[in-house]
Amino acid sequence: MNNILRHIYAVFLKFRSVKGFDPLKEFKGKRIAVIGAADTALSSEWGVLINNLDLVIRVNKAPHSWNPDMEKNIGKKTDILYHSFFENLESGGGAIDQDLYSKFGIKKIVNPNNNSLGQKAHLNFYKRHKKPIQTFILDQDISERITNEFEEGLPTIGFYALASVLMTQAEEIYISGFSFFKTPYYKGYRDHLLDEKRNKEHIKKQGLHDPDREFEVFKKLLRNSPAKKIILDPYLRNILSA
What we know:
Blueprint: H1 3-17, E1 18-21, H2 23-26, E2 31-35, H3 47-51, E3 55-59, H4 62-65, H5 71-74, E4 80-82, H6 98-104, E5 108-111, H7 116-129, E6 135-138, H8 140-147, H9 157-166, E7 172-176, H10 196-206, H11 211-224, E8 230-232, H12 234-241
Parallel strand pairs: 1-6, 2-3, 2-7, 3-4, 4-5, 5-6, 7-8
Helix pairs in contact: 1-7, 9-11
């Protein structure tokens, strides 16, 4: 298949397979956990609670890095995976592996970056896979509202997940594993960036993300969230009180 035909076929697959994802509808009245990849996720034994919530949201490489020792801390249940649709292992979301995802019960793979960059990444996904795999893209208005909080660059995929949940009328929201890059990832997620200094250098080199700005916007979203109840892990409670 030459490049032109591959492009046309990928456009067809994308048109056929991608659906919109509206968190205002998806999350209303639900008990939800949003679990990030910071090592602080392992500081609480929320595993049983997480596994019994209505929806559990994880990010990027979470299914690849999970191991049974983590279940007591962060559970295993995963309903929705927010993913960059960049499948490289070093800085992207890791391979979109349907067989692996089915073991976790993942129902929806969501690309939260609904702009030209995100749309291109989504199209390239279908160029690579050449199959009608159902995926989702975040509602454009919600995606833009989150992105517009940043003058330069883009939010991280984890931040898109946090923000899109906090903007909804959820019944309860549990948040763990987000340290805004003040601590390393947990082991197994990105082991080449376990050192905090190296991780910060990596973020600076990418030139896309601003963790300090994400933290400020996170605080604003917490203050204004229409959710009925929000529960934070001990690390987040501490840095917010500080």
